[in-house]
């Protein structure tokens, strides 16, 4: 199925029902379908051929999400752009993806101004909701469409998603229609969906919140789009719309549990409250089950194999009496029905239950590869298995326990953060000679960065200066929370910074480094 086929399935069962809702306004399935057709026609009129890359730069917005289905109907490839990334990051990604069309909200005009001139394949820029010099207005864009377009090429690429690398060089994950169809099927078979679900999309639609819309659409469900992830808004929207399904990263779950209004809010409509993108505290998960209800549902995946590598549905969080099972809550669940999972050592040998190793998988859920990067694709493949880059082990009952990441990547607020990328950005400061970043635990964001910076001899730089410098170059969630500016950093014989020694320094200051990794 193409992405637009999920919408068309919804039209067949709920044509005049609400499809996309924001605030008090809704677009019906029929209206979204009509809009997707006009977008597809307009793209074709602008010379967009099947397989062309079309980027969408927007905060959570119903028209922007409807544009995804127009891109699909035109046979083009959706390239979601994270608006939290800085210009240099998005410029490199879109140039690598050969982006031909960029659809954006007016709020991101400054970002578009910074990246559009340097995209050689870009020929059309469209503003969804305002004006920008060099951009077509939305009405003019739609008016330029010609004959109806509905290109059926279901085996082609559906989307290319940007992901960083430990080298700081971003890659493009190529996801096919089959990959997303597998994810949708696993969602429908593994979690309680029920009749006409109501899904609250809080997280960015460029991430997990977006792909989780597809199983809702085939069920004729309503997607309520939250423009802000504020906890107060979530607690207002769930009872107001009778929300049945919700996805939040652990950071927001923790904030929800700390909200004074939680216990007085009627959350009885919830059937399935997904959490993922980072490990969650067993104690706080237990609290969520007790206070929100037995609706918590874990999912584990990655951009290269979205969402559904393992599953822990609501009924597996608790025993027959509804009491949470701690050993289950500390796991990531079992391999999904259409996923074969194994644990291998550094030589690729399969490991028995209880033995730690890299998590590898086989499934039609796994990406086609990295866009025009055969070397990276080969590195992520081991004898037909996809290497997740994660370390874990399986218990005797088949539940997977996630241990950590092989490389230095860490999660902060549900987002992937790569220390080397930050180190390179710090090193761009003219006063800096060397820099190292370590992940340290944080009660709200899971982990945050702690930077050690060594200035050039005779130079000085403050933490505030570095923080301001970095905010102009990388996304805010990647900026370290703390900076140590020191005149010397410990070095290994090969000249690299001795990060183990830095971990020891943090420990000597009584900073909790129990989960810190060099």
CATH architecture of the largest domain: 3-Layer(aba) Sandwich
Span between N and C termini? Answer: 43 Å
Query: How confident is the prediction overall: mean pLDDT?
Result: 90
The number of E-state strands comes to: 27
What value does the Rg take, in angstroms? 23 Å
Oligomer: single chain
> How many helical stretches?
17
Give the low-confidence spans: none
Largest beta-sheet characterization: 9 strands, mixed
CATH level 1 name of the largest domain? Alpha Beta
What structural class do the secondary elements suggest?
Answer: alpha/beta
Query: What fold name goes in the CATH topology slot of the largest domain?
Result: Rossmann fold
Characteristic key phrases:
518 residues, Rossmann fold, Luciferase, domain 3, GMP Synthetase, Chain A, domain 3, nine-stranded mixed β-sheet, 27 strands, 30% helix
Structure commentary:
The protein is α/β, with parallel strands linked by helices and 518 residues long. The chain has 3 domains: 225 residues, Rossmann fold; 65 residues, Luciferase, Domain 3 (Luciferase, domain 3); 99 residues, ANL, C-terminal domain (GMP Synthetase, Chain A, domain 3). The chain contains 17 helices and 27 strands. It has a 9-stranded mixed sheet with strand order 2-1-11-10-12-13-14-15-16, sandwiched between helices. A 5-stranded parallel sheet has the order 4-3-5-6-7, sandwiched between helices. Strands 17, 18, 20, 21 and 22 form a 5-stranded antiparallel sheet that branches. A hairpin with a 2-residue loop joins strand 1 and strand 2. The protein is globular and about 65 Å long. The two termini are 43 Å apart. The mean pLDDT is 90.
């Amino acid at each position: 199925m193409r992405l637009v086929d999920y919408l068309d399935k919804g039209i067949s069962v709920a044509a005049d029902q609400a499809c996309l809702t924001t605030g008090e306004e809704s677009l019906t399935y029929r209206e979204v379908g009509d809009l997707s057709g006009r977008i597809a026609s307009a793209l074709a009129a602008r010379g967009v051929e099947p397989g062309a890359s079309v980027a969408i730069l927007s905060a959570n917005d119903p028209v922007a999400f409807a544009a995804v289905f127009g891109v699909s109907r035109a046979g083009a490839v959706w390239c979601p752009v994270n608006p939290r990334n800085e210009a240099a990051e998005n410029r490199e990604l879109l140039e690598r993806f050969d982006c031909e069309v960029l659809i954006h909200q007016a709020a991101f005009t400054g970002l578009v101004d910074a990246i559009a001139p340097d995209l050689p394949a870009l020929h059309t820029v469209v503003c969804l909701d305002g004006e920008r010099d060099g951009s077509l207005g939305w009405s003019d864009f739609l008016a330029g469409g010609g004959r109806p377009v509905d290109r059926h090429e279901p085996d082609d690429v559906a989307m290319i998603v940007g992901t960083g690398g430990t080298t700081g060089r971003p890659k493009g994950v190529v996801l096919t229609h089959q990959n997303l169809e597998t994810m949708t099927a696993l969602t429908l078979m593994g979690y309680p969906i029920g009749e006409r679900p109501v899904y609250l999309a809080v997280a960015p639609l460029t991430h997990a919140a977006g792909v989780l819309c597809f199983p809702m659409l085939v069920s004729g469900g309503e997607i309520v789009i939250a423009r802000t992830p504020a906890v107060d808004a979530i607690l207002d929207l769930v009872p107001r719309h009778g929300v049945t399904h919700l996805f939040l990263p652990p950071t927001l779950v923790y904030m929800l549990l700390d909200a004074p209004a939680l216990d007085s809010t009627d959350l009885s409509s919830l059937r399935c409250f997904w959490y993922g993108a980072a490990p969650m505290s067993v104690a706080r998960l237990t609290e969520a089950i007790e206070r929100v209800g037995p609706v918590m549902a874990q999912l584990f995946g990655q951009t290269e194999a979205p969402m559904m590598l393992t599953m822990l549905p609501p009924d597996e969080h608790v025993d027959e009496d509804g009491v949470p099972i701690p050993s289950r809550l500390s796991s990531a669940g079992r391999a999904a029905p259409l996923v074969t999972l194994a644990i291998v050592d550094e030589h690729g040998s399969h490991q028995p239950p209880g033995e730690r190793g890299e998590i590898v998988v086989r499934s039609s859920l796994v990406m086609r590869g990295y866009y025009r990067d055969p070397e990276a694709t080969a590195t992520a493949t081991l004898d037909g298995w996809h290497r997740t880059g994660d370390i874990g082990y399986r218990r005797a009952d088949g539940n997977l326990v996630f241990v950590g990441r092989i490389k230095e990547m860490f999660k902060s607020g549900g987002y992937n953060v790569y220390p080397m990328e930050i180190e390179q950005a710090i090193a761009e400061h003219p006063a800096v000679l060397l820099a190292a970043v370590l992940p340290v635990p944080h009660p709200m964001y899971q982990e945050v960065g702690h930077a050690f910076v060594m200035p050039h001899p005779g130079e000085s730089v403050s933490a505030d200066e570095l923080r301001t410098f970095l905010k102009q170059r990388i996304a805010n969630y990647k900026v370290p929370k703390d900076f140590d500016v020191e005149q010397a950093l410990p070095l290994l014989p090969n000249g690299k910074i001795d990060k183990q020694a830095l971990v020891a320094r943090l420990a000597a200051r009584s900073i909790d480094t129990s989960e810190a990794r060099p």
